[in-house]
Amino acid sequence: MKNSDKLKEIVREKYTQIANQDKALNQSSCCGAGGCSTEVYNIMTDDYSELNGYNQEADLGLGCGLPTQFAQIQAGDTVIDLGSGAGNDCFVARHETGESGKVIGIDFTEAMIKKARANAEKLGYNNVEFRQGDIDDMPVSDNIADVVVSNCVLNLVPDKQKVIREIYRVLKPGGHFSISDIVLVGDLPKALQEDAEMYAGCVAGAIQKEEYLGYITKMGFDNISIQKEKGIVIPDDILAKNLSQEEIQSFRQGETGIYSVTVFAQKPGEKKSKPKLILSEIQGESCTPGSGCC
Description:
By secondary structure, the protein is of the alpha/beta class. The protein is built from twelve helices and eight strands. Helix 6 runs parallel beside helix 9.
């Protein structure tokens, strides 16, 4: 496998391409990477269309779960979405936070940031912003988020421990995350592990499930739980780019499992209650001594 900087550049190039290609191609491949499968449609994605706040133009079909559905977002929360793409999870989160909350999407692909900002402007969302940057070095301050969400993105980052450390840093005490990602049980064939296209497609970059959960535990998070888990089957026509028919059969009959898991965890500490707005603040008036509002 190539070094971290090279892998990041591969992912950046691939997701620039994804930002400008048809959604159907993204859904029928592995997180948008690789050629279209003729065998299976919607290999990894779950259906967002029934969730409040869903925006079709912002849904590129790149996810492997529905983290915002499980994220327990409250009105007024500050939410950070890692790998925000065209903004779909941000807009679903914004429905939950309401106008009193704030949503920050982070993505390191310029084309995705432009697409997400255009979508937010069309929707008139002034409390949703998109920042370009790496999720293993987030362009946000410490202790700023009530909730962090992410959908099929951590597996694209070479240093996953660094991302988890960053999540811990940006969460407020008592804050939590709900993240969907791809994990493994058993070892992938070497050819898949070394294939850059499969790395960009969320598979080759995935790590062992126990290792993934171990990083979260080691970081000091509490109340760790798996909110949802589903098996992922990569179609033979995609595997055939790397494996012979005999190798595909051996892989199918082996003990390696590829799973989408949605994991919840909480940063230790007591979550502070949000200050209540007084009437004058809600109405946009200034509060001055003697006015009765102070």
